[in-house]
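Instructor's aside before we start: the two examples that follow are unrelated to each other. I chose them only because their records fit on one page, so don't look for a connection. First example below.
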Amino acid sequence: MLKLYHCDISKMSDEDFLNAYIKSDESRKAKADKLRKKPAKKLSIAAGELVRNAVANEFNIEKDDIRFRVGKNGKPYIEGISVHFSISHSKNIAVCAISDRPVGIDIEFIRDVNLNVAKRQFAPDELKYVFEKWDLSKKRFFEIWTRKEAYVKLLGKSISYFPNFSVMGNNKIETHIRNRYIVSIAK
């Protein structure tokens, strides 16, 4: 089973944000509290609320009964429920994948980026792909970035692991491009 959910936080009122913040677990509140700008705080809280709603819907349980915990390498899990999940957010969109097996998801809004980051984080074949068509380099950067991010989330590792592997040819990662967003799911 793999289910995907998304939400647009531009539709979240300040009252909805406050209610979701109050009901959020302490680790999600702490993440949001570290962010300086209100839209970023809203996005972080909305992502947590999205996974809470998804799990409540899939398992027919009350949202208030869901308890998040943090496991090895900081990977979150839900106490007492055998479910795997991954969340991500970018610009106004939060996404969530829930599954009966480990899963990773990442979303990025295609925007200007310092492509020197690729030189430090990408494998040689990934670099070739990003830079071989200059007019596509930004899009290709985020295509590789979301694939790598989804994969490290699947493995329960951090982005410091990025230079250690290539996602080129990895058929366990799906990538979808819609409007100016790129979403990758690793399963």
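Example two begins here.
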Amino acid sequence: MIQETAMKILDILKKHFPDARLILNYRNVFELLVVTILAAQAPDERVNQVSPALFQKYPNPAAMAEANDEEMDKIIQAISFYRQKGRHIRAMSKKIVQDFQGEVPKTVEELVQLNGVGRKTANIVLANGFGIPAIPVDTHIARVSQRLGLSEFSNPEQIELDLTRIFPQEKWIQVSHLLGFLGRYICQAKKPKCWECPVFDWCSYPTKNAQKGLKEVN
């Protein structure tokens, strides 16, 4: 029953968000890895503003590995925690050059060996860079999964496991994009736009009726 409902939700979201995708801009897998690290706790739109200048100066892992700390930090200083992220990116680039012949690895196990890369980032790279089925669980996907009853857990890895059990593997990448868009644009943390939600009927969010009623009154 959960799988049947989940697929129905997915079909509705596909119609509502036909252009659901990763918001970050990139031209290759290495750039995807870098912008994903930069986007941790930072708006994707701001990363997209900064990244063109970064990649113009440091176009590949070898160049990034040899980057001057202060020069790189100046380029990315508009992003939160930029010094820490700069260190991660430089160290990550060095490891790619030294241990992976300058190529971004294609497994979660190898990716999480890189500085600044956790499971979520690894799954984003696998799904969007290599087209390998994966469900990266960010705050949007975690929130939506709980409210729609797709997972009762708060731990991202457990939510990922629940989603991979519910949805067929060939849908995993699409699932991450659609649930992500729902969380980003409608099912927001503090003020969800319940009156706009295309899957309102399946939501268990405690105050959803109040949220919908608020809009109807307005």
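The chain has a mean pLDDT of 95.
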